[in-house]
Amino acid sequence: MLRAAMAPTGLALQRTRQLATAAVVAGFILAALLLPQFTQRRDVINLFFLMYLYITLAQSWNILAGYGGQINLGHAAFFGIGALTTRTLWTEQDFPFAAALLAGGAASVLFALVVGIPTFRLRGVYFAIGTLAMAEALRLTIANLLPNITSLPGPVIARYDLEPRYYLALALALCTAVTVYLLPRTRLSLGILAVREDEEAAQALGVNPLVHKLIALALSSFFAGLAGGVFAYYHVSYYSSFAFSPNWTFDAVLASFVGGIGTLAGPIVGGSFFILVRERLAVSLVDVHQIIFGVLFIVVVLTLPGGLVEASSRLRSAVRRLLHHALNV
Amino acid sequence: MNLEPVVQNLVFGLFVGGLYGIAAVGLSLVFGVMKVLNVAHGALVMLGGYASFWIFTWYGIDPFAAILITAPLLFLLGFALHVGLFRFVTRLGEEAKIKNSLLISFGLTLVLENLAIKLWTADERAITTGYAGEGVTLAGVIFPYTRMGAFAVAVLAIALLHFFLNRSYAGKAIRATAEDWEAASLMGINVQRTYVVAFAIGTALAGVAGALVGVAYTIAPSIGLAWTLKALVVVVLAGMGSIVGAFGAGILLGEAEALSVYVFGSSYREVVGLVLFLLVLLLRPQGLFGRR
Amino acid sequence: MLKIDDIYVAYDDLQALWGVSLEVEAGEIVVLIGPNGAGKSTLMRAIAGLQPPSRGRILLDGATIHQLPAHSVVERGVVLIPEGRRLFGGMTVLENLQLGAYATKARDVHVETLRRVFEIFPILEERRGQAAGTLSGGQQQMLAIGRALMGLPRLLLLDEPSLGLAPLVVRDIFEVLREINKDGVTLLLAEQNARMALGVAQRAYILEQGRVAGQGTGQEMLQSDHIRRAYLGQLGPIEEAKP
Q: Model's pTM, two decimal places?
């Protein structure tokens, strides 16, 4: 029976695999939805909240890097603007939170487009260090203009409940994932991919590179801004410039690369792995997680450009081949 | 009108500019020769600073004199880093090389900074010599010994580099490799060895910069990124690959910052540099002194 | 002296040379002619060590050199003047010449060699402080040859030496090459200017589409109808091209 199961036809095999993947994904989503019902432990819910947040952070960066082909080292600016806008509108201007959150995303997109149009003239490396400089300049300016800690108002703290924040982060991570899933499946995104591969050839085919890059940028900044807004909803008190810290960029870059850049699962795997390692190690060894991830990152860039996702698929096919050999002997 | 504060500012701007210059020259050399963008350069400056600090703390050796120890030490570190890490990037085509070296050195920065935190804590360190805080006063303007010394060493180091690159066979080989590595190999130049040497020299220069930063300012694991950005700003201002021009651009940046402090106040000092950087990137990407 | 034994060379994913074999005896002038893209440059680069062959061997005085890196090939006395000369434009004429003698054996005597190069090319001595990129085409070619001579070559490889030069200048250059050869340097040239090259060479090979399509003495080539039609642009008898 095992023999027969090992040799089904190509198409049937593919469909089985697709169903299996869909089932697994559905299973995970169901488990995620039900998690707060099964545990009251704040630290567990908090852990998963952070995982969803970082998945969104990495996924949003990945849209521009993996699909748009641009290494953006100023991602923290989008996150920070989203956080700042949402926080200000919600806590100081009494906007309903949902409106403040969307405004945060919108503000981020607006900033991205305004800055993106001139910056996109820069090629590869110059774009990377240019965005880094821009984000740092923004952070320093915010630190100067808003040096104080921003705190959630008393009444909000009094009725602070982690559960809605958990579900919000989960919803955002799912939205981002769905968008990334649909990305290669729309005509629009084929254009984005073409631009990434060969800008001149794409142009010759009638694809306007700038438009496609801007769309990738808009999506990237929108989700990063929303992530910032969720952060503003979650974190009780912090220095306003904290949300603009380059660490948000670096964490996104690390998670995306280690997980597998340009893939859907990559940022999910990378982001989860990153948070798990960090929270686990934060207890015993402070900041060692950065060293570990730094080394992993270097290893990935040098030897395994597809990250853990590629590693796992290579592992799976190696195992499959091994089984095949073992059973056919 | 009282000119003293303005002149004082300009004098300080000159001194810090020299420091910016020496911090940038190593980065420019490495990029010019092998088209590797090492954003961990600032972390190497930081390590140079720590080396200088510990040599001073444990053995009481004056940081300026200790440069004779810290520079070779960091030369060896640069050698190890190239052979162990960056060597694998130099085989790639130019675009991939720049991108991958950016990413790898980014990972390296994180590793080095957090190692520094683990080993030496995140506390700020300063090298306080006997003559720290003292200086010469001319016409009401103070010239602190530490900053003057740092400036002098920076000038000396860059002069030595210039001399080496222009008068020695090895230096000319480095310049030739920077211009056209294939043609250089046709001259009998071992390009891989040239890369190692250039990278090691670049790291040694970072070490020198770090020692000077330790004397004139403070050292902490977090200064790595800040100094990388500073070095990048200067390199872009000068034009990528313009090695000695980096010194001039450093002075320019130092003075620009000094003047901006006068106009905008000191809290926007860093922002000015970054904005200048972005403007040059967008409007004159070949830099102020660059050729290409 | 030089023996190329059935080499195959690929560029990225394109096969450029298919089983090329040829020989150069010491003291000879041998010319490679053939159309653009035939693989002449690839062959030169393979000999110089820039493009290792995937199959076959390259032998210098019986010893294999095809696995050596370029800088080691120079140490063995084989110097390539690449297509387009590839001078260090930002460096002075003198510096370019000095760099030509970088290899250890050459460096020991570089002062002496420099004097001889200046004798051959007085214009280079005149302009020795000038940036190489500011020289005229002909002067650049002279500098390229001078730079190569600084390396004390036993075998000098030239890839398209006449490229972009006026006919009179080309004539001068080939005259110099004859002199260098008389001094004992073996020459292997790849040339599109077949007429000029064949007049100077003892033997020639035709390279077409990555394969050796024919060989013979310089005179045989000049008389051959095929050659005249394909590379010299005419039918009927022609006089020897005497540069």
A: 0.87
